[in-house]
Write a structure and sequence with these properties.
The chain is α+β, with helices and mostly antiparallel strands and about 350 residues long. The chain has a domain of about 230 residues: 3-Layer(bba) Sandwich (FAD/NAD(P)-binding domain), CATH 3.50.50.60. It contains ten helices and 21 strands. Strands 1, 2, 8, 9, 10, 11, 20 and 21 form an eight-stranded mixed β-sheet that branches. Strands 5, 6, 13, 14, 15, 16, 17 and 18 form an eight-stranded mixed β-sheet that branches. The protein has a three-stranded antiparallel β-sheet with strand order 3-7-4, with no helix packed on it. α1 packs parallel to α7. The radius of gyration is 20 Å and the shape is globular.
Length: about 350
């Protein structure tokens, strides 16, 4: 069997890549070893810039409006309202189902398999018994394809960060993404349904979910008596590196191409943008590596700076600085939200 594009990875970015390719008139087969709806520990906030990218794919997932971001610590908060439109809080399972339906509508073929070998040459790629002109690897943070084609780069052992997430059955109390900065963790509150909020946190490998929530009195009070609406999930470590975004006709898309940290919440927007430039490269457009650098530039610069501050003695000053310098704080949030 031969197709134009094989996409490895059936998460949101893999599905978006497959949909983009079909909209461009390419034949597509998606390879994913899991055959059910894929969940992930994440903040579940789609930034304003992500929604138009989804809409052009024909995908409009249900969710809750997100009008801005609120950085908070024990003494103060700094609120910023998006200027370029609103975002949306969407359960990861809801997003995955919406993308899956759209991919099926467009005729994306699906193969349930585990990728253990990739053979690439000047004219195409052979993987899992399929021959394709191009392979888009959207197989996540710990991408097997990245490793198989020799683009894996060891990440730093120091300051490795992980994510935890659980939902609670309580009515959202804000249309802002609330980010509580504690001494060692960031805790993200995202409304995802009229009666459900998601609580996600980033921290070290020993971060205790219940203990962290209990250490934020304002949040602990709001969640008092609220029943869990999902099980506790984990992810990470988040810092992952690739030697470069592509090798021949194999293009790394989304988290597989390298990831700094989930701290600013725009990972899906970046993944959707990378899917678009991957399809452009596969259809005679500009080379992927240069376009990948272009669409990720703000993320790499701004997020790396914020992560550096969060892992330094400057951490305690992040929320005070956001409060005292609202123009700078707003400019950074707006830039990332686009």
């Amino acid at each position: 069997m031969s197709v134009d594009v094989v996409v490895v990875g059936g998460g949101p970015v893999g599905l978006a890549s497959a949909i983009e390719a079909r909209l461009a008139g390419l034949t597509v087969t998606l390879i994913e070893q899991r055959d059910d709806t894929i969940d992930k520990a994440c903040g579940e906030g789609l930034m304003p810039g992500a929604l138009p990218l989804l809409a052009r794919l024909g995908v409009e997932p249900e969710g809750m409006p997100l009008r801005g971001v609120s950085y908070r610590d024990a003494h103060r908060h700094a609120d910023y309202l998006f200027r370029g439109g609103i975002g949306r809080g969407v359960r990861r399972t809801t997003l995955h189902s919406a993308l899956t339906r759209r991919a099926e509508e467009l005729g994306v073929e699906r193969v349930t398999a585990k990728v253990e070998r990739v053979d690439a040459d000047a004219t195409g790629v052979t993987v899992a018994g399929l021959r394709a002109g191009w392979l888009f690897a959207a197989d996540g943070l710990h991408s097997p394809v990245r490793r198989l084609i020799g683009l894996e780069r060891p990440g730093p052992r120091r300051a490795r960060r992980f994510g935890l997430r659980q939902h609670f059955a309580v009515a959202p109390w804000s249309e802002l993404i609330e980010v509580y900065w504690t001494r060692r963790s960031e805790v993200y509150i995202t409304p995802v349904a009229p009666d459900i909020v998601g609580v996600a946190m980033l921290g070290g490998s020993r971060t205790d979910f219940a203990e962290t929530v209990a250490g934020i009195p304002e949040l602990a009070e709001r969640l008092t008596g609220a029943e869990p609406a999902s099980s506790l999930r984990g992810a990470g470590p988040f810092r992952q590196r690739a030697a470069r975004p592509s090798k021949g006709r194999v293009l790394l898309v989304g988290d597989a191409s390298g990831y700094v940290d989930a701290i600013t919440g725009e990972g899906l927007r970046l993944g959707f943008a990378q899917a678009r430039v991957a399809v452009a490269a596969a259809t005679g457009g500009p080379a992927y590596d240069g376009q990948w650098r272009r669409v990720t530039r703000d993320f790499r610069v701004l997020t790396s700076g914020l992560v550096g501050a969060a892992n330094s003695p400057l951490r305690a000053g992040i929320v005070p600085a956001a409060s005292m310098l609202p123009g700078l704080y707003g400019a950074v949030v707006e830039r990332l939200a686009r």
